[in-house]
Each structure stands twice: as C-alpha cells, then as structure tokens.
C-alpha cells in the first residue's frame, strides 16, 4: 500500500522536466550546440568567486567537527545575525535573529509555512502565472489551493478578481516577485493596493490574512527596477528566501524564512514554522553552507550576462512580432503564443529544437516561458528560428 497522491507526484514528471529530458536526448543526436533549451531555470552565471574562497577558508580555519556538526535546529546564531544585519542595512528595518529560521531553500520553507497555516478549511491563494509546485506544496500541507486569474499582459495583480476570491477561510496569499514565469516585478503601487485590500479583509473576517512572499529572485532585477520589500509595506508578511538564484547555489539547498515578530501571532507563527519544518524532517540546514552564508550574505550576483541575454532575446522577439511581458526581473521571458494553444506552439518549436514551456502549467494558457539561462551565442542563433516560427504560426 502507498499514498496515491504521493505516487502521482513522483510518477508523473513535470512538463518542464519532460522538455529538459527531451533536449538531452536531442543533444545526443544533433549536438548540444544545436539544441536551444529554454526550459529549465538553472542559473548559468557562476557564484561570486568569494563563495568558493569562503568555502576554502572555512575548510582551512575551522575544525571538522564544527564544520560538519549539527547546528541549532532553527539555524546557527551567527548566520541568523549576519542575515539580520544585512537586511536591516538594506531595508532600514530592525530584524532580529529570533525572527529568522534557516531553511533548505525556498521549496521546503514554503511547505513549512503552508503547514504552519493549515488550520481546517484553510485556503491559500496564488496569483497566475504561478510556480507550479505551489499546488502540491499547499495541498499536501492540508490547505486548499485557489488561483487568481492573470492580469495579462502586465502580470501585476487583478485586485477585483482577488477581492472576489478572498473569504473567511483565506489564510494567505502567496506572491512571487520578481516572478517565475513572467519575469515581472510587482510595483510598489501593486503591493500597497494589495496590502490595503488584505488589511480590509482581515478586519472583516477577524483574522490575519498573511502574504507569503516567495523571494528566490529578489536581487535579480534589471534596468534600475527594485523589488519592494514587502514586510516594510504589509506587516503580516512571511518571507521565504533562497540563495539558489542570488548566489547561484541551487544544489546546496540554503535559504531562510523571516517571520516578523510584529506580525499578528508573530511569535507563535515562528514556532509553528519551526515545528512544521521539524515534522517534515527539515531542521538544521547544511552546516557548511550556513557558515558560508554567514560570511557571504552581503554578496550580490553579477547580472551582466543575464541582462545581455534578456535584452537581446526581448529585442529579437519583439522585432519578430511577438508580444512579451515587460521582463524586469528573474531570468524568464513570458511570451504570448502566436497560436492560441501554447502547447501546440511548443510542439512546433520542438521541430526546430527550440524548447519552450507552455504557460498552461503556470495557470496562464496561451503564453509560454523562456528561461534565458543559456549562452549568449545560443540566444543569437535562436532568433531566426523564432522568426520562422512566427511566420509558420501565422500560416
Ligand atoms: N519559488 C520559485 C518561484 C522558484 O522559481 C523556485 C525554483 O525555481 C523555488 C521557489 C524553489 O527554489 P529553491 O531552490 O530555493 O528551493
């Protein structure tokens, strides 16, 4: 006997994984240089050199038992102090180490937060387009998952639709800005309007409605755009942060949850996040990486390569007649499919070894996602193929 839901999640590969595997098989036949794989969000710029230097220094100057031993379940105090100091300097807040829980990346952190909020009947709202894993994360945590329809082509938030969906069971809204898959960044006006709406609805229902801010891409912004610091605008915000993208460390599994003590039930919620993580077996994030973060949390990625890819791909697509969401952040472009059925367009593109992810799985049919973590040369060589695809789609 086994859990059929868990089986289904394990047995059915995601469409993104399928495309990626397909790309690998094509690469073996036509050569990797001829496969234009825009499917998977794996960083393509190296970690800042200081990260590896720090790892070497820690290996040399710290005893083995200390490097590899368990830390406190909620994370090493020095690491939490360093993160708090960095956030306070950047955002003018007064975060203390006791509000930070060191986790193994945004994915398990989100699961812990959803479990912490999962009272009977609890609903979590996501805004389309959304990261597909939110659905299994919330549902397996015991919450209902509801989706607010997309606000195309700006991909800000449809406040009217959101307001109509908030009800007495709404425990939280998950937001992700800079956004995967849209590459958009919520404006301060969007966040302030959302905050005002949630204040009003929280008062109406007599309980807080939390924002869960999923922030793996916070530092990945371009052209002078900044992502608003959400807890500074809405006090009932729980942040799930990850170093996977900002320090290009996705395989190392490290990040943190920030639960402000000034949030409603802030201290209890922090304990509930720690408890939910404990129940999921996720305590004491990798010890070496915690030590690295204590010394490297101030480092920022060098975004030049992403920015060059972003601008070249955006210009080329627009010139070829595509409608593209304004790509202010993360490393994705979200593009309106020239065929109403983006899955059919993805199949058409596969024939030219161009791999793009249909928006259906992100709750946004009719659009597709391109992850531009690829070489600049590939971006340039793929542009004529996108132009041909546009012509073919237009018949
Ligand atoms: N949230 C979003 C929006 C993501 O795009 C990802 C990964 O791609 C995650 C969460 C999970 O990131 P992590 O590697 O920190 O678990």
Characteristic key phrases:
single chain; 395 residues; alpha/beta; Aspartate Aminotransferase, domain 1; Aspartate Aminotransferase, domain 2; 2 domains; seven-stranded mixed β-sheet; three-stranded antiparallel β-sheet; 14 helices; 43% helix; globular; binds pyridoxal-5'-phosphate
CATH topology of the largest domain: the name is Aspartate Aminotransferase, domain 2
Give helix % range: 40-55%
User: What hetero molecules are bound to the protein chains?
Assistant: pyridoxal-5'-phosphate
Shape: globular
One letter per element, helices H and strands E, the order comes to HHEHHHEHEHEHEHEEEHHHEHEEEH
Major sheet strand order: 2-8-7-6-5-3-4
Structural class: alpha/beta
Strand residue content: 5-15%
CATH class of the largest domain: Alpha Beta
Number of strands: 12
The overall pLDDT average reads 96
Q: What would you report as the Rg, rounded to the nearest angstrom?
A: 21 Å
CATH level-two architecture of the largest domain: 3-Layer(aba) Sandwich
User: What is the number of domains?
Assistant: 2
Major sheet details: 7 strands, mixed
Unreliable segments of 5+ consecutive residues: none
Summed up, the helix count is 14
Rounded to the nearest angstrom, the distance between the terminal CA atoms is: 52 Å
Q: Spell out the CATH superfamily of the largest domain.
A: Type I PLP-dependent aspartate aminotransferase-like (Major domain)
